[in-house]
Amino acid sequence: MNEESKKSVEEMKTYQIFSSFFLTFNWDVIYLTGKETK
């Protein structure tokens, strides 16, 4: 593997971790605000 593809793989991993964390955070907020509305 050359350096460029290695670097992009690292960025993909970071992006996946970040996006999954962000999604979880989003769902928590939606869930909490939904509970407060009811």
List keywords for this structure.
mainly alpha, transmembrane helix, membrane, transmembrane
Task: Please tell me about this protein's structure.
The mean pLDDT is 88. The chain has one helix and no strands. The chain is mainly α and 38 residues long. It has one helix at 3-37. Helices cover 92% and strands 0% of the residues. Keywords: Membrane, Transmembrane, Transmembrane helix.
| Net shape | rod-shaped
Main structural class: mainly alpha
Oligomer: single chain
Strand fraction: under 5%
- Strands, total number: 0
The topology string of helices and strands comes to H
Spatial gap, N to C terminus: 54 Å
Transmembrane segments: 15-34
Keywords: Membrane, Transmembrane, Transmembrane helix
Give a summary of the structure in a few sentences.
This protein is an all-alpha fold and about 40 residues long.
Task: Please outline the helices and strands.
Layout: H1 3-37
